[in-house]
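[scheduler] slot 2 assigned
[scheduler] job type: sequence-to-structure, two independent chains
[scheduler] chain ordering preserved from manifest
[runner] begin chain α
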Amino acid sequence: MQDAIDALRGRGLSRIESAATADELEAARIDLLGRKGEVTALLRGLKDVPADERPAAGAALNRLKLELTDAFAARERDLRGAGEAVTGLDLTLPGAAPVPLGTAHPLLTVLEEICDIFYGLGYDRGDGPEVELDYYNFTALNFPDDHPARDIQDTFFLSDKTLLRTQTSPVQVRVMEQVTPPLAYVFPGRVYRNENADASHSSEFFQIEGLCVDREISLVDLRQTVDAFVERFFGAGFETRFRPHFFPFTEPSVEVDMQCVKCGGKGCGVCGQTGWLEIMGAGMVHPRVFAAAGYDEDAYTGFAFGMGIDRIAMLKYGVDDIRLLYENDLRFLNQFRGVL
């Protein structure tokens, strides 16, 4: 890994220094630091680094990212200065009639921020179809035939065997059918449920689920993962707790609460005076799900978790109505310009 980091440092700095225009510099930035850039690819590859070498490799990658960022800023200043010397004008000043610029949608920003956190924990990213088979959405996840979620009052069926997925959990089974443990994945995506829209519900929304499978995985590993996510996303100092629950695809199952981000656990209107906010469901993967995916349920254990990206975004930015995130009202969306 260190050899790859050193090679990328030399190659990246050389490309930045050789950029002759702002467009070339921006193209270099995307290739090196973009979401699909070379640095991100190395970050995702941390999961393949031996555990004892992973902290040093992660620190070296962070230093490389900062070094490249500083190099981009310095080269941008050089190019700006060269333009002023030739024309006597600051070419970076806006025109007389500036064109309004767009901004990243808060849901997309939260989704990518969550994924980045789990990339740093060694997770990969999986995806699956939104039009899903009943088998993957329900049967392979241990839903009985008479489960209420199979009713048309809850699910958008397209035929007897196809539907709009109600969760991103089907991707877990699809990935397990193709990947041999150990594995760690997150699955972000859009899901659909037959619900009336109100301040806290929508017929379409975003979820992100996680799956970790290996030998001797336990609830302790799940708890540590949840705590690491909460600390990195919301900041230090927020306690979490597990409450017993039931999900067909996990056993045991838990609901995960964290201290209210508004009142810090003292009790307020946001948390219903309890001091706690429910943020995700989780648990140990049910042996029947392993059997459906072709895993030896006696050899492997794993945990899974899922949360609504919409709800996380509402907590992070103090949004009190989920419909605001989907109405494309620029008066609302422009509030996030320069914040995300």
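[runner] end chain α
[runner] begin chain β
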Amino acid sequence: MDLGLSGRTYVVTGGSSGIGKALVAMLVDEGACVATCARNVDRLAAETARIAETAADRLLTLGCDVRSGEDTEEFIAAVAERFGGIDGLVSNAGESRMKPFADTTWEDWHDELELKFASVLNPLTAALAHLRRSDAAAVVNVNAILARQPETRLVATSAARAGVLNLSKNLATELAADGIRVNSVCLGLIDSGQWRRRYEAAGPAGSFEAWSAAVAADRGVPLGRFGTPIEVAYVITSLLSPLASFVTGSSLDVGGGVGRCV
């Protein structure tokens, strides 16, 4: 099936690993031009080197801290100069802060809220004029099931995720008149560098597959495993496609059935 992405330009933040890296590869395979950024530009270049070997003319990698409005404006300006416009934006930066309320400091709250909101607002603000000129503009905010189903172990992250989900719904309504669709993808347990580090910190615990299956069982995941970055990338790619032109203001769970909110 032709998703209608060929020749269009998409921005993916946080492209140096996991979901971002998988999404960049998938969009390039679909014939799109892709710009991606990360704070560690050397790591980003190394992780996307294989893509660049076959599609260097359709890939742009730059260093950028999306918490900085100035950094982000420079990044988006470079994208527009290189590819002539922007058709879609995927805000994918940010990790979880594993702390209960009793251990969460004011600094933790500030850092978490700043990262979650700035990583959405700065790229969108910088790209908005370009998105308005597209005939199939789409924004996808990568969020988490925590936004609707909070965990006490992740109190600040849960609260920040809920705020971003609310923000995304508001943006979908406000930007609809400009022809810009805004949707969210809410993640459950996804195999990532963060989870790999937690596995290593757990000490001798068998294989990652066995360890992650035990975590999935503890969290009540019906499919009994972690998801993969490719599985998430497919959902995001589908939402970016012009074929999803009547989908906006939605949030799709990619969590193996873990969501218990209806």
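[runner] end chain β
[qc] chain β: The chain has nine helices and seven strands.
[scheduler] slot 2 released
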